[in-house]
Design a protein that fits this description.
By secondary structure, the protein is an alpha/beta fold. It has three domains: 29-194, Rossmann fold; 200-268, Helicase, Ruva Protein, domain 3; 278-343, Arc Repressor Mutant, subunit A, CATH 1.10.10. Helices cover 44% and strands 12% of the residues. The chain contains 14 helices and nine strands. It has a five-stranded parallel sheet, with helices on one face. Strands 4-5 form a two-stranded antiparallel sheet. The chain has a two-stranded antiparallel ribbon with strand order 8-9. Helix 4 (108-117) links the parallel strand 2 and strand 3 (123-127). The structure holds adenosine-5'-triphosphate and magnesium ion.
Protein backbone atom coordinates (compact mmCIF):
# COMPACT_ATOMS: atom_id res chain seq x y z
CA UNK A 1 0.00 0.00 0.00
CA UNK A 2 1.64 3.25 -1.04
CA UNK A 3 1.80 5.49 1.94
CA UNK A 4 3.44 8.84 2.06
CA UNK A 5 6.13 9.19 4.65
CA UNK A 6 5.05 11.79 7.12
CA UNK A 7 8.60 12.65 8.00
CA UNK A 8 9.78 13.42 4.52
CA UNK A 9 9.54 17.12 5.31
CA UNK A 10 11.50 19.87 3.68
CA UNK A 11 9.05 20.46 0.85
CA UNK A 12 8.06 24.00 0.15
CA UNK A 13 4.69 24.90 1.59
CA UNK A 14 3.46 26.88 -1.35
CA UNK A 15 0.13 28.63 -1.10
CA UNK A 16 -2.45 26.39 -2.67
CA UNK A 17 -4.13 27.79 -5.76
CA UNK A 18 -7.83 28.23 -5.26
CA UNK A 19 -9.73 25.32 -6.69
CA UNK A 20 -12.43 26.36 -9.07
CA UNK A 21 -15.82 26.23 -7.47
CA UNK A 22 -14.66 26.83 -3.93
CA UNK A 23 -17.00 29.29 -2.31
CA UNK A 24 -15.33 32.65 -1.84
CA UNK A 25 -13.50 32.66 1.48
CA UNK A 26 -15.32 34.82 3.99
CA UNK A 27 -13.62 38.10 4.74
CA UNK A 28 -12.22 38.50 8.29
CA UNK A 29 -15.09 40.87 8.95
CA UNK A 30 -17.67 38.27 7.94
CA UNK A 31 -15.94 35.67 10.09
CA UNK A 32 -16.05 37.87 13.16
CA UNK A 33 -19.70 38.58 12.49
CA UNK A 34 -20.50 34.87 12.08
CA UNK A 35 -18.69 33.99 15.31
CA UNK A 36 -20.53 36.76 17.15
CA UNK A 37 -23.89 35.29 16.24
CA UNK A 38 -23.11 31.61 16.65
CA UNK A 39 -25.09 29.89 19.40
CA UNK A 40 -22.76 28.78 22.21
CA UNK A 41 -24.87 26.09 23.85
CA UNK A 42 -27.14 23.38 22.59
CA UNK A 43 -30.10 25.10 24.28
CA UNK A 44 -29.51 28.19 22.10
CA UNK A 45 -29.54 26.24 18.84
CA UNK A 46 -32.83 26.88 17.04
CA UNK A 47 -34.73 24.23 15.05
CA UNK A 48 -33.36 20.82 13.94
CA UNK A 49 -35.40 19.41 16.82
CA UNK A 50 -34.96 15.73 16.04
CA UNK A 51 -31.24 16.09 15.41
CA UNK A 52 -30.80 17.94 18.70
CA UNK A 53 -32.79 15.34 20.62
CA UNK A 54 -30.61 12.55 19.26
CA UNK A 55 -27.44 14.51 19.94
CA UNK A 56 -28.53 15.15 23.51
CA UNK A 57 -28.94 11.39 24.02
CA UNK A 58 -25.52 10.49 22.68
CA UNK A 59 -23.91 13.31 24.65
CA UNK A 60 -25.59 12.19 27.88
CA UNK A 61 -24.72 8.55 27.24
CA UNK A 62 -21.06 9.33 26.49
CA UNK A 63 -20.82 11.43 29.63
CA UNK A 64 -22.47 8.77 31.79
CA UNK A 65 -20.08 6.13 30.55
CA UNK A 66 -17.11 8.49 30.75
CA UNK A 67 -16.26 7.60 27.18
CA UNK A 68 -15.50 9.73 24.15
CA UNK A 69 -18.45 10.51 21.91
CA UNK A 70 -18.63 8.21 18.90
CA UNK A 71 -17.38 9.79 15.68
CA UNK A 72 -20.06 12.06 14.24
CA UNK A 73 -20.68 13.11 10.64
CA UNK A 74 -22.75 16.24 10.02
CA UNK A 75 -23.97 16.81 6.52
CA UNK A 76 -26.22 19.30 4.83
CA UNK A 77 -26.18 22.40 2.64
CA UNK A 78 -24.00 25.41 3.52
CA UNK A 79 -24.99 27.72 6.35
CA UNK A 80 -27.36 25.39 8.18
CA UNK A 81 -25.33 24.95 11.35
CA UNK A 82 -22.79 22.14 10.90
CA UNK A 83 -19.85 24.14 12.25
CA UNK A 84 -22.12 25.59 14.91
CA UNK A 85 -23.05 22.13 16.20
CA UNK A 86 -19.46 20.92 15.96
CA UNK A 87 -18.45 23.80 18.23
CA UNK A 88 -21.34 23.46 20.63
CA UNK A 89 -20.78 19.74 21.27
CA UNK A 90 -17.31 19.96 22.88
CA UNK A 91 -18.52 22.89 24.96
CA UNK A 92 -21.39 20.77 26.26
CA UNK A 93 -18.95 17.96 27.02
CA UNK A 94 -16.39 20.30 28.56
CA UNK A 95 -13.63 19.05 26.25
CA UNK A 96 -11.16 20.67 23.87
CA UNK A 97 -11.69 21.04 20.14
CA UNK A 98 -9.17 21.27 17.31
CA UNK A 99 -10.15 22.55 13.87
CA UNK A 100 -8.94 21.53 10.48
CA UNK A 101 -10.40 20.82 7.07
CA UNK A 102 -10.10 18.32 4.25
CA UNK A 103 -8.28 20.68 1.85
CA UNK A 104 -5.81 21.77 4.56
CA UNK A 105 -4.68 18.19 5.12
CA UNK A 106 -2.69 17.51 2.01
CA UNK A 107 -0.60 14.65 3.37
CA UNK A 108 -0.59 12.41 6.45
CA UNK A 109 2.09 14.57 8.01
CA UNK A 110 -0.40 17.46 8.08
CA UNK A 111 -2.82 15.36 10.09
CA UNK A 112 -0.33 13.81 12.50
CA UNK A 113 0.04 16.83 14.85
CA UNK A 114 -3.73 16.99 15.28
CA UNK A 115 -3.84 13.30 16.18
CA UNK A 116 -0.98 13.46 18.66
CA UNK A 117 -2.34 16.68 20.21
CA UNK A 118 -5.83 15.26 20.62
CA UNK A 119 -6.51 14.93 24.33
CA UNK A 120 -8.68 12.26 25.89
CA UNK A 121 -12.33 12.62 24.77
CA UNK A 122 -11.45 15.80 22.86
CA UNK A 123 -12.95 16.64 19.48
CA UNK A 124 -11.10 16.91 16.19
CA UNK A 125 -13.34 18.82 13.79
CA UNK A 126 -12.64 18.19 10.11
CA UNK A 127 -14.59 20.55 7.89
CA UNK A 128 -15.18 19.65 4.22
CA UNK A 129 -14.19 16.10 5.07
CA UNK A 130 -15.20 14.94 1.59
CA UNK A 131 -12.05 16.64 0.35
CA UNK A 132 -9.56 14.58 2.36
CA UNK A 133 -6.92 13.22 -0.02
CA UNK A 134 -6.91 9.38 -0.22
CA UNK A 135 -3.53 9.05 1.56
CA UNK A 136 -4.81 11.10 4.52
CA UNK A 137 -8.03 9.15 4.55
CA UNK A 138 -6.15 5.87 4.85
CA UNK A 139 -4.02 7.36 7.58
CA UNK A 140 -7.03 8.35 9.64
CA UNK A 141 -8.78 4.96 9.53
CA UNK A 142 -6.73 3.27 12.30
CA UNK A 143 -6.88 6.52 14.29
CA UNK A 144 -10.68 6.46 14.18
CA UNK A 145 -10.99 2.72 14.72
CA UNK A 146 -8.32 1.86 17.29
CA UNK A 147 -6.84 5.24 18.25
CA UNK A 148 -3.58 4.26 16.67
CA UNK A 149 -1.49 5.53 13.77
CA UNK A 150 1.01 3.70 11.65
CA UNK A 151 3.98 5.89 10.82
CA UNK A 152 6.43 5.01 8.09
CA UNK A 153 10.00 6.07 8.84
CA UNK A 154 12.60 6.24 6.14
CA UNK A 155 12.14 5.26 2.54
CA UNK A 156 12.71 2.35 0.20
CA UNK A 157 14.57 -0.61 1.70
CA UNK A 158 15.17 1.20 4.97
CA UNK A 159 11.51 2.00 5.49
CA UNK A 160 9.92 0.68 8.64
CA UNK A 161 6.53 1.24 10.13
CA UNK A 162 5.93 1.97 13.76
CA UNK A 163 2.57 2.03 15.46
CA UNK A 164 1.72 4.81 17.86
CA UNK A 165 -1.12 4.82 20.38
CA UNK A 166 -3.33 7.90 20.61
CA UNK A 167 -5.76 9.20 23.20
CA UNK A 168 -9.37 8.17 22.61
CA UNK A 169 -10.80 11.20 20.87
CA UNK A 170 -13.77 11.99 18.63
CA UNK A 171 -13.77 13.03 15.00
CA UNK A 172 -16.61 15.34 13.99
CA UNK A 173 -16.70 15.62 10.22
CA UNK A 174 -18.76 18.17 8.29
CA UNK A 175 -19.65 17.98 4.64
CA UNK A 176 -21.97 19.61 2.17
CA UNK A 177 -21.53 16.59 -0.10
CA UNK A 178 -21.90 13.38 1.82
CA UNK A 179 -22.26 11.53 -1.49
CA UNK A 180 -18.60 12.25 -2.21
CA UNK A 181 -17.40 10.51 0.94
CA UNK A 182 -15.91 7.09 0.31
CA UNK A 183 -17.87 4.25 1.84
CA UNK A 184 -15.03 3.19 4.21
CA UNK A 185 -14.77 6.72 5.63
CA UNK A 186 -18.52 7.09 5.95
CA UNK A 187 -18.73 3.75 7.74
CA UNK A 188 -16.27 4.85 10.39
CA UNK A 189 -18.76 7.44 11.66
CA UNK A 190 -20.92 5.88 14.33
CA UNK A 191 -23.39 8.76 14.23
CA UNK A 192 -24.57 10.60 11.16
CA UNK A 193 -26.88 13.58 11.18
CA UNK A 194 -28.33 15.46 8.26
CA UNK A 195 -29.27 19.11 8.71
CA UNK A 196 -32.24 20.37 6.77
CA UNK A 197 -33.55 23.79 5.82
CA UNK A 198 -35.30 25.84 8.50
CA UNK A 199 -38.91 26.92 8.44
CA UNK A 200 -39.99 30.56 8.54
CA UNK A 201 -40.80 30.60 12.25
CA UNK A 202 -37.41 29.18 13.14
CA UNK A 203 -35.64 31.71 10.95
CA UNK A 204 -37.67 34.55 12.46
CA UNK A 205 -36.55 33.42 15.93
CA UNK A 206 -32.91 33.38 14.75
CA UNK A 207 -33.28 36.88 13.24
CA UNK A 208 -34.91 38.30 16.38
CA UNK A 209 -32.35 36.70 18.71
CA UNK A 210 -29.45 37.89 16.60
CA UNK A 211 -30.83 41.42 16.25
CA UNK A 212 -30.72 41.53 20.04
CA UNK A 213 -27.10 40.36 19.97
CA UNK A 214 -26.36 43.20 17.54
CA UNK A 215 -28.17 45.69 19.80
CA UNK A 216 -30.68 46.40 17.06
CA UNK A 217 -34.38 46.83 17.66
CA UNK A 218 -36.48 44.87 15.18
CA UNK A 219 -40.24 44.58 14.64
CA UNK A 220 -41.79 41.14 14.39
CA UNK A 221 -42.97 41.78 10.80
CA UNK A 222 -39.49 42.86 9.77
CA UNK A 223 -38.01 39.67 11.25
CA UNK A 224 -40.62 37.67 9.33
CA UNK A 225 -39.79 39.57 6.12
CA UNK A 226 -36.08 38.80 6.47
CA UNK A 227 -36.89 35.17 7.34
CA UNK A 228 -39.04 34.76 4.25
CA UNK A 229 -36.20 35.85 1.97
CA UNK A 230 -33.53 33.74 3.66
CA UNK A 231 -34.09 30.52 1.72
CA UNK A 232 -34.39 28.41 4.85
CA UNK A 233 -30.77 29.19 5.73
CA UNK A 234 -29.63 30.82 9.00
CA UNK A 235 -26.43 32.17 7.41
CA UNK A 236 -28.51 33.99 4.77
CA UNK A 237 -30.82 35.29 7.50
CA UNK A 238 -27.83 36.62 9.44
CA UNK A 239 -26.37 38.31 6.39
CA UNK A 240 -29.67 39.92 5.43
CA UNK A 241 -30.16 41.02 9.02
CA UNK A 242 -26.74 42.61 9.04
CA UNK A 243 -27.43 44.48 5.81
CA UNK A 244 -30.86 45.57 7.01
CA UNK A 245 -29.41 46.81 10.27
CA UNK A 246 -26.85 48.90 8.38
CA UNK A 247 -29.57 50.24 6.10
CA UNK A 248 -31.83 51.13 9.02
CA UNK A 249 -28.96 52.87 10.76
CA UNK A 250 -28.49 55.12 7.76
CA UNK A 251 -32.11 55.62 6.72
CA UNK A 252 -34.22 54.78 9.76
CA UNK A 253 -35.22 56.35 13.01
CA UNK A 254 -32.63 55.52 15.66
CA UNK A 255 -31.71 52.44 13.69
CA UNK A 256 -35.00 50.67 14.40
CA UNK A 257 -35.67 47.90 11.87
CA UNK A 258 -39.30 48.32 10.89
CA UNK A 259 -41.08 46.32 8.22
CA UNK A 260 -40.79 49.29 5.85
CA UNK A 261 -37.01 49.51 6.50
CA UNK A 262 -36.59 45.78 5.93
CA UNK A 263 -38.49 45.88 2.64
CA UNK A 264 -36.52 48.82 1.33
CA UNK A 265 -33.22 47.33 2.45
CA UNK A 266 -33.95 43.97 0.84
CA UNK A 267 -35.11 45.60 -2.36
CA UNK A 268 -31.86 47.53 -2.60
CA UNK A 269 -29.95 44.30 -1.96
CA UNK A 270 -31.84 42.77 -4.91
CA UNK A 271 -33.15 39.86 -2.91
CA UNK A 272 -36.64 39.19 -4.19
CA UNK A 273 -39.69 37.92 -2.32
CA UNK A 274 -38.63 34.31 -2.83
CA UNK A 275 -35.08 34.98 -1.70
CA UNK A 276 -33.68 34.81 -5.22
CA UNK A 277 -30.55 36.87 -5.69
CA UNK A 278 -28.99 38.43 -8.76
CA UNK A 279 -27.02 35.27 -9.58
CA UNK A 280 -30.11 33.05 -9.36
CA UNK A 281 -32.08 35.28 -11.66
CA UNK A 282 -29.18 35.38 -14.12
CA UNK A 283 -29.14 31.58 -14.10
CA UNK A 284 -32.86 31.40 -14.81
CA UNK A 285 -32.74 34.11 -17.48
CA UNK A 286 -29.88 32.35 -19.25
CA UNK A 287 -31.66 29.00 -19.13
CA UNK A 288 -34.86 30.57 -20.40
CA UNK A 289 -33.61 33.18 -22.85
CA UNK A 290 -30.48 31.54 -24.26
CA UNK A 291 -31.60 27.92 -24.13
CA UNK A 292 -35.36 28.31 -24.49
CA UNK A 293 -35.85 26.86 -21.03
CA UNK A 294 -33.51 23.89 -21.57
CA UNK A 295 -32.53 21.18 -21.41
CA UNK A 296 -29.07 22.69 -20.98
CA UNK A 297 -26.16 20.73 -19.53
CA UNK A 298 -24.45 21.90 -16.36
CA UNK A 299 -21.18 22.60 -18.17
CA UNK A 300 -22.99 24.57 -20.85
CA UNK A 301 -24.68 26.69 -18.21
CA UNK A 302 -21.36 27.15 -16.41
CA UNK A 303 -19.70 28.38 -19.61
CA UNK A 304 -22.53 30.73 -20.47
CA UNK A 305 -22.58 32.26 -17.02
CA UNK A 306 -18.80 32.17 -16.48
CA UNK A 307 -19.43 30.52 -13.14
CA UNK A 308 -17.68 27.26 -12.18
CA UNK A 309 -19.94 24.23 -12.55
CA UNK A 310 -19.53 23.15 -8.94
CA UNK A 311 -20.50 26.61 -7.70
CA UNK A 312 -23.70 26.29 -9.73
CA UNK A 313 -24.28 22.80 -8.39
CA UNK A 314 -23.56 23.70 -4.76
CA UNK A 315 -24.72 27.27 -4.39
CA UNK A 316 -27.29 28.07 -7.05
CA UNK A 317 -29.16 24.99 -8.18
CA UNK A 318 -30.13 23.42 -4.83
CA UNK A 319 -32.50 26.26 -4.00
CA UNK A 320 -33.92 26.47 -7.52
CA UNK A 321 -34.55 22.72 -7.42
CA UNK A 322 -36.04 22.97 -3.98
CA UNK A 323 -38.57 25.64 -4.95
CA UNK A 324 -39.40 23.76 -8.15
CA UNK A 325 -37.94 26.31 -10.58
CA UNK A 326 -35.67 23.87 -12.36
CA UNK A 327 -35.55 20.15 -12.93
CA UNK A 328 -32.54 17.96 -13.52
CA UNK A 329 -33.18 15.68 -16.45
CA UNK A 330 -30.80 13.21 -18.10
CA UNK A 331 -30.37 15.74 -20.93
CA UNK A 332 -29.72 18.73 -18.68
CA UNK A 333 -31.45 21.42 -16.66
CA UNK A 334 -34.97 22.48 -17.56
CA UNK A 335 -36.80 25.58 -16.35
CA UNK A 336 -40.28 24.84 -15.02
CA UNK A 337 -43.43 26.84 -15.66
CA UNK A 338 -43.00 28.54 -12.28
CA UNK A 339 -39.55 29.80 -13.31
CA UNK A 340 -40.80 31.24 -16.62
CA UNK A 341 -43.57 32.96 -14.77
CA UNK A 342 -41.22 34.33 -12.08
CA UNK A 343 -38.81 35.72 -14.64
CA UNK A 344 -41.78 37.16 -16.50
CA UNK A 345 -41.04 35.70 -19.91
CA UNK A 346 -43.74 34.35 -22.19
CA UNK A 347 -43.29 30.63 -22.56
CA UNK A 348 -43.77 29.27 -26.08
CA UNK A 349 -46.22 26.40 -26.46
CA UNK A 350 -43.53 24.06 -27.70
CA UNK A 351 -40.84 24.87 -25.11
CA UNK A 352 -39.19 21.74 -23.65
CA UNK A 353 -40.36 22.32 -20.10
CA UNK A 354 -43.76 23.37 -21.27
CA UNK A 355 -46.96 21.46 -21.42
CA UNK A 356 -48.52 23.93 -23.74
CA UNK A 357 -49.22 26.65 -21.22
CA UNK A 358 -48.63 30.26 -22.13
CA UNK A 359 -47.78 32.91 -19.64
CA UNK A 360 -48.56 36.57 -19.88
N1 LIG B 1 -29.63 26.11 14.45
C1 LIG B 1 -29.19 27.36 14.48
N2 LIG B 1 -29.63 28.22 15.39
C2 LIG B 1 -29.19 29.50 15.41
N3 LIG B 1 -28.28 29.99 14.56
C3 LIG B 1 -27.79 29.16 13.63
C4 LIG B 1 -28.20 27.81 13.56
N4 LIG B 1 -27.55 27.22 12.54
C5 LIG B 1 -26.76 28.15 12.01
N5 LIG B 1 -26.90 29.33 12.65
C6 LIG B 1 -26.23 30.58 12.32
O1 LIG B 1 -25.79 30.50 10.97
C7 LIG B 1 -24.40 30.74 10.88
C8 LIG B 1 -23.82 29.76 9.89
O2 LIG B 1 -23.88 28.45 10.41
P1 LIG B 1 -22.66 27.44 10.30
O3 LIG B 1 -21.38 28.17 10.11
O4 LIG B 1 -22.72 26.50 11.45
O5 LIG B 1 -23.06 26.67 8.95
P2 LIG B 1 -22.35 25.43 8.24
O6 LIG B 1 -23.40 24.39 8.08
O7 LIG B 1 -21.11 25.08 8.97
O8 LIG B 1 -21.99 26.03 6.80
P3 LIG B 1 -20.81 25.63 5.78
O9 LIG B 1 -21.26 24.36 5.11
O10 LIG B 1 -20.75 26.77 4.81
O11 LIG B 1 -19.55 25.48 6.58
C9 LIG B 1 -23.85 30.61 12.29
O12 LIG B 1 -22.87 31.58 12.55
C10 LIG B 1 -25.03 30.86 13.19
O13 LIG B 1 -25.08 32.20 13.57
MG1 LIG C 1 -19.11 25.28 8.41
Amino acid sequence: MPRESIYRGGEEELPRPKKSGEPPAPTPDEKVFEEELRPRRLSQVVGQRKVLERLQIILDAAQKRGEPLGHLLLDGPPGLGKTTLAMVIPRELGVDIQFTSGPALRAPRDLLPYLTNAGKKSVLFIDEIHRLPPAVEEFIYPAMEDWRVDITLGEGLNARTISMTLERFTVIGATTRSGMLTAPLRDRFVHREHLDYYDLDELAVIVTTNARKLNAEIDAEAAAEIASRSRGTPRKANNLLRWTRDFAEVHGEQGRITNEMARRALEMREVDALGLEHQDRRYLKTLIESFSGGPAGLQTMAHSLSIPADTLEDDVEPYLLRIGFIQRTPRGRVATAAAWSHIGVLRPMNSPGGQGELFE
